[in-house]
Amino acid sequence: MSKETMIRTISGKRTFKQSLKLAFKQRYLYLLLLPTLVSVFVFSYCCMPGVLMAFQDYSIYKGLWGSEWVGFDNIAAIFRQSKFTGAIWNTFYTSVMCIITGFPAPIILALMLHELRNKAFKRVVQTISYLPHFLSWISVVGLVYMIFSTEGIINNVMSWFGAKEPFRFLASQTVFQWFVILIPLWKGLGWSTIIHLANLTSINPELYEAAEVDGANYMQKLRHITIPHMLPTCMILLIFQMGSLFSSNFELVYGLKNPYINFDVISTVVYETGIQAGNYHMSTAIGFVQGLVALLLVLGTNWLSKKVSGTGIW
């Protein structure tokens, strides 16, 4: 073994030859990853040339390479039409509200579950909170109609207490917006808690024991042990959530929309403009701007995360 190889081995850094040997030993694990890598390559990278439609007056008859180039005209047109700007604002508003409600809620639930000493009760609470995650969004929409429609469960209960007219929950613009904010919270709360619970269980119990010996109370242990340990994971999750700030739940919004509701988000506008109306270049321009903003948000949040916790995606 050469001196350089010996130094790398002692320092824990593998040489290229050692990395190849290790990869060969783990070749079956890499084969398990192959279907996922192929699907990501096909559906995320092979379709990237389609972004060129955002800069064209695209015609399905002329194709991608024969359509006329218009530069940034499509992107400029997005901000001149009230429908598009309204959809952007609605997406931003609902996404921010979802982060405000949905980011701290799993952390709080994980802290509460972590303190439970009754294991049977803890399992029951975990199971009940996880179950909504396994429902499809169309099933969730069906449940909302079953509960909140004029002939739904809530209006039937209200009629038992003397209500003469049913309340039209699904025809209220304000109620609709709260549906879009709170239903994802209900559906994803338990599942998101799993990550924070796993993070909490990895904390060395001796740290809490030492803190108790020093006379620390619960809030002091939370501040000086629990939160610093959870912070890097929380910041990584925040980066991912910021990346989806301008994304929206198409299935939920489109499923709950009705003639009484005037509420569009970016994904519904892309569907109605591109698929239904055949205006592919405009829908592609909206998606391009959405992706560009998401990239900038991820870069900014990653930079902030490194400043705050010293942890980032890269």
Layout: helices, strands, pairs:
Layout: H1 3-11, H2 16-25, H3 27-45, E1 56-57, E2 68-69, H4 73-78, H5 82-102, H6 104-115, H7 119-130, H8 137-148, H9 153-160, H10 173-201, H11 205-213, H12 218-243, H13 250-256, H14 266-276, H15 280-309
Antiparallel strand pairs: 1-2
Helix pairs in contact: 5-10, 6-10, 7-10, 8-13, 12-15, 14-15
Q: Could you characterize the architecture of this molecule?
A:
- It is a single chain.
- With 314 residues, the protein is mostly helical.
- 70% of the residues lie in helices and 1% in strands.
- Strands 1-2 form a two-stranded antiparallel ribbon.
- Helix 7 (119-130) crosses helix 10 (173-201), helix 12 packs antiparallel against helix 15 and helix 14 (266-276) runs antiparallel to helix 15.
- It starts with a helix and ends in a 5-residue tail after the last helix.
- 18% of the residues are buried.
> Quick one: biggest sheet?
2 strands, antiparallel
Order of helices and strands: HHHEEHHHHHHHHHHHH
On the 0 to 100 scale, the average pLDDT is 84
- The first-to-last residue Cα distance is 33 Å
Principal-axis shape equals: globular
Instruction: Report the helical percentage.
Output: over 70%
Poorly predicted runs? 1-11
Tally of DSSP β-strands: 2
* Rg for CA atoms: 25 Å
Structural class of the helix and strand makeup? Answer: mainly alpha
Count every helix, treating DSSP H or I runs of 4 or more residues as helices. Answer: 15
Q: How much strand content do the residues show? A: under 5%
